[in-house]
Amino acid sequence: MKSVIVILFHLFPFFVVAQEEKDSAKIAKNTFFIEGLGNGFWYSVNYDRILLYKNNTKITGRLGVSFLYKSILNSNDNIWAIPFEMNILMGKKHHFEFGLGITYSYGANSYGDYYGRIFNSSSLWLMPRIIGYRFQKRQGSFFIKAGIPVFIKIIELNKEYENDGRYKTSNIFPFLGIGLGYTLKNKKQ
Description:
The protein is mainly beta.
């Protein structure tokens, strides 16, 4: 009898995982969206995937890219931004979203002309903390999100000039991001 209890005790996690996988197979996990004024600064094209799902809580990962050609901003540099983010979502289709990420930007000194020299380097690592709202149905379809990423500057490389007093350099600054896209429907439904 003891052996049966020990075997069932060791197999229990596999039953739980199998049930969780069965439930998560019903969920549309892949989302493509465009976000304006969020983690990619002016805009970003993003892929988001639900990594874990249990009850009404989801953990997602996001990777995006943003590119602005130098003539658009009258700049000397092309500007790249690559946002990466992990989020916790709470809710069924209307979600409270909380996340933490890393955004790498190259050519960031060009933003200074528009944001009061907030960025004064050509290579920059930022850590956005995100609080927001997300509408995403379990079975997939239209997707919308709005949030406030608050950026914390963590690494600045290749400074080309010092702050001369005319511009204020900040280490913490908020944005307001809005994303629109589509969650792909799961073929297994």
